[in-house]
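dumping this here before i forget
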Amino acid sequence: MLRQLLISLVLLFLTTACALPFRELDAEPEPVQGKIEGDGPHKTPAPLRTELTPDLTFHLLAGEIAAHRDKAQTAFDHYQKAAALSGDTTVAERSAKIALFIKEKQGAEDAVNYWIQRAPNNLEARQFAVAVALYVNKRDDAGRQLAELIKVADAKGEDGFLLAVRALGKAQDSKQALGLMRDLVKANRTRAEAWHALALLAAELKAFSQAEKAVARAVALKPDWRQARILKAKISWFAGHRDSSLELMRQLVAEAQDDKELRLTYARFLVQAEKHEEAYQQFQMLWKEAGDQGTGHGVDDVRYALGILALQLKRYDESVSHFTALLGSPQQKNEAAYFLGRIAEEKGDNEGAIKWYEEVGEGDYELEARLRIAERLSASGRLKEAREKLGSSRSRWPEHAIRIFVLESALMKEANTDEGDVWKLFEDALRVNPDNIDLLYTRALYGASRGRLDILERDLQAVLKQNPKHADALNALGYTLSDLTGRQEEAMGYIKQALELKPDSPAILDSMGWVNYRIGRLDEAVGYLQKAGEKLHDPEIAAHLGEVLWASGKKDEAMQVWKKAWDKFTDNGVLLKTLQRFGVKF
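structure:
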């Protein structure tokens, strides 16, 4: 599992767009020409002045100078006077925005009202008026401005409902914002755009039940509206209905083969759903459309995704091809070198992996590469060099010292280093970080592996004193007490607490199965262990399940469980010892 951790994190990175605020996932409204007056239902007043007067010039210059000197209140005073003298909409706009910036409630109200008075058809002014009304907690005023926003937008041929979402999305009170949007929809219940906007705002505010109902209404009113169907697919995804979301997304992509953004979103959803083969196919289609046209940031991103997915699917030659090409990308050469190292590591080429990791320069992957070098050195029997590498890394990245100490202890344990040296490492680490939970937890597990139950109990109790809900510590303490002592009821108590905190954890389910076995509850034990095995194909879980089945008289089933695990995990110590105890050979 640990070997796949970073790949999984990078696969998660490929889904970044899916985690952006919901309004970023939907299409922007058509460009708003809010400062072009004349197109709208309201008559625009003529300018008060067409020439600069000495007073007007003074206030404009004084306001600008004050703004540059960060004297916002003074800037507002001058711009407010300049707006009154000129009637100019740009000056009125600046006055209103400065007032809101300095949290001058009355000033902001006065300024935005004057802006609207001078520019009644300006959509930005109407949006700003909504924001100000919400800021000063005048819900009715906000509702009136939203209605005017729709009226003006309709006259201009704009989608005012999307503009309303932009205005309400900034509200501090999400319930109030949704209430205002619902009021707007009630007045426009036959318009699909209104329901679409409500769905968008509700989704952005994570009110997914409301969002699903609203977008369904939008699609019902306008069945062929592609944008609403896309939003429906996205909302279904974030509401947790992944299968229906992916099916609708698949249909939409099939209908518009040339929609690259939609295909990219679909591919990212597939990655998040761990459908890596299907995601790979979608990225390949994007590559065929764009990859052969040259290089560039967008093309490199697709190539990078293909490299990661090919590595995940163990298509090493394809992954090498993509990452080798990315070595020429200034933005991604370090990542490319790192993953070429990962590929070499997966293929068992320690020296090749080290060579590539050493090519990783300063950036996000540098520390990871250094730690990987240490692991490969240790795996090659060069523990001393590995520890030197970790020591230099600890000096360079002191903020990651705990993590590096934990890794060093693991490498020393794997190399069967003298026990005294490992204890000294923990002593040195805890001298600087005496209460660190990760160090205490790791030392506890090492103590258990060396039969030092006194250290296990002392350190895990210290962990639990700091964090009584540390599920892994509760589980480790409970399992070890169950496995190595007769304190089964005490062990059961710890494991029950852990399971309440992490009910789907395969490790804790395994522990609960084991403690039930140890106290003679064989049927309950089998149930927990089978559930653990369904969640994770792990040799230790299989060893335990086989033993309980054997003890239950189900020897054929036990043999099947053990054989399946043995075919894949022939080097697992727990599984091997279990088979030896029962005299089983494969």
